[in-house]
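User: Hi! I have a protein structure encoded as tokens and I'd like to know what sequence might fold into it. I'm fairly new to this, so please keep things simple.
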């Protein structure tokens, strides 16, 4: 985590916590995190859609510095897309960051690179920040295809975006074999891939754009693994699944990340 980039710790709650539970988690987090922590780290929460309005009103009423996030959206603004949610609706709810291309969406809901790219553009068009997720399977890692897979997903994901838009983005490197498995990539593995992502973005844009994007690591991140990950020069934060459901553990992760940037 070098100077200049503010770390970003994001909690992806996936399909967990109804709006009552979500509110309780938010309030506990507000109590656990001192106000000044937000001067050194950005924190975003990505609850299910049905919780977003509840969290928005609470964040607003309590003037919390937590950034509201979403896990997904459609790339069209409106129309006959039963069950889908428009990026415009999220922007109206003060959502700041939207995860797209999560491996679970790619694998379980058939989202390919082309769809993910359309979502990236739609999210940017609505002045929100995409968190573009990329990552390899275990078979791809073992076949030595990690960089080819990840860099291919990055190139496809940011295709057609302007340099200043790319500079504002977040890329989350989430090795699929480390998600929900308790297996974390070593800090060095995370650095190797995050460094390769930054170099590839530099090659396709320029050094200053690549120096501005934030690259998160995700995959079984816990408080105990955060410091070492955050010490890597190209790891600018974490996208946290399971551990973000526990406010105590998540607050610890945030505080460690804040310490790493001071
Ligand atoms: P876990 O932290 O539960 O492995 O989930 C990672 C993830 O998929 C975050 O988007």
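Assistant: Happy to help. Inverse folding works backwards from shape to sequence: for each of the 262 positions I chose a residue that suits the local structure. Here it is:
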């Amino acid at each position: 985590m070098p100077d200049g980039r503010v770390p970003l710790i994001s909690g992806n709650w996936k399909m967990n916590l109804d709006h009552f539970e979500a509110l309780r988690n938010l309030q506990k987090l507000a109590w656990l995190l001192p106000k000044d922590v937000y001067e050194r780290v950005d924190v975003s929460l990505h609850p299910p859609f049905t919780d977003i309005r509840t969290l928005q009103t609470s964040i607003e009423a309590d003037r919390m510095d937590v950034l509201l996030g979403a896990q997904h959206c459609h790339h069209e603004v409106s129309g006959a897309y039963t069950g889908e949610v428009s990026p415009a609706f999220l922007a109206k709810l003060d959502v700041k960051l939207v995860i797209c291309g999560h491996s679970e969406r790619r694998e379980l809901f058939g989202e390919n690179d082309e769809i993910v790219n359309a979502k990236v553009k739609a999210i940017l068009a609505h002045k929100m920040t995409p968190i573009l997720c990329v990552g390899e399977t275990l078979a791809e890692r073992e076949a030595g295809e990690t960089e080819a897979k990840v860099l291919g997903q990055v190139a496809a994901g940011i295709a057609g975006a302007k340099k200043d838009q790319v500079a504002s983005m977040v890329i989350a490197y989430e090795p699929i074999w480390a998600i929900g498995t308790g297996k974390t990539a070593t800090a060095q593995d995370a650095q190797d891939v995050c460094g390769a992502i930054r170099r590839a973005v530099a090659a396709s844009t320029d050094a200053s754009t690549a120096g501005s994007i934030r690259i998160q690591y995700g995959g079984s991140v816990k408080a105990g693994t955060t410091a070492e990950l955050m010490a890597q020069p190209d790891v600018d934060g974490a996208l946290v699944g399971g551990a973000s459901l526990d406010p105590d553990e998540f607050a610890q992760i945030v505080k460690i990340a804040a310490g790493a940037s001071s």
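A useful reference point when you look it over: Residues 8-261 form a domain with the TIM Barrel fold (CATH 3.20.20.70). Feel free to ask if any position seems puzzling.
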